[in-house]
UniProtKB/TrEMBL annotation:
This is 6,7-dimethyl-8-ribityllumazine synthase. The gene is ribH. Pathway: Cofactor biosynthesis; riboflavin biosynthesis; riboflavin from 2-hydroxy-3-oxobutyl phosphate and 5-amino-6-(D-ribitylamino)uracil: step 1/2. It catalyses: (2S)-2-hydroxy-3-oxobutyl phosphate + 5-amino-6-(D-ribitylamino)uracil = 6,7-dimethyl-8-(1-D-ribityl)lumazine + phosphate + 2 H2O + H(+). GO terms for molecular function: 6,7-dimethyl-8-ribityllumazine synthase activity. Its EC number is 2.5.1.78.
Length: 173
């Protein structure tokens, strides 16, 4: 594994765009919830560390990783849960959090491919709200644990940093 022995989740918040006014949606798969909850916690901690107000972080749960696509689409089109009443500001970015662990059937391949293509498609639609892919696709539970707060860091925090960067690109155009 290329990441063996490395924690890849470090960031320098001084080199990031101002996130104080950003609104971020997070769609979380309930499948493998021990992993997805750790990813969610990592994302929220990084967002708040970078200045995003906790009241501007909006969560939606979905049953599994395949359902992330619909959950993200719903957030894109509704600015879930509602547009900020004071500023009328929609979401700036959405993070899709899931975990698929390889099993004994081809189900893994179909789910991973479908979720990847679905999230890609959401990034090409007209809403202009970027969707960040934070779906761990590992061979074992131990690999997922290592990437969701273990020895390889937390991909949730990495997704949060990507969301801030992509939101800044969106807001600049």
């Amino acid at each position: 594994m290329a990441t063996q022995g490395k924690d890849l989740s470090h960031y320098d918040k001084n080199n990031l765009p101002d996130a104080a006014a950003m609104r971020i949606g997070i769609v979380v798969s309930e499948w493998n919830d021990d992993i997805t909850e750790n990813l969610y916690k990592g994302a929220v901690e990084a967002l708040m560390d970078c200045g995003v107000d906790q009241f501007n972080i909006h969560r939606m749960n979905v049953p599994g990783s395949f359902e992330l696509i619909y959950g993200c689409k719903t957030m894109q089109h509704r600015s879930y849960p509602v547009v900020n009443r004071r500023t009328k500001k929609p979401l700036d970015a959405i993070i899709a959090i899931g975990n698929v662990i390889r099993g004994e059937t081809a189900h893994f391949d179909f789910v991973c491919q479908g979720v990847t293509q679905g999230i890609k498609d959401l990034n090409l639609n007209k809403t202009r709200i970027p969707v960040i892919f934070c779906v761990l696709t590992d061979d074992t539970h131990a690999q997922s644990a290592a990437r969701s707060g273990g020895q390889h860091g937390n991909k949730g925090s990495e997704a949060a940093i990507a969301a801030i960067k992509m939101a800044a690109i969106k807001n600049d155009h």
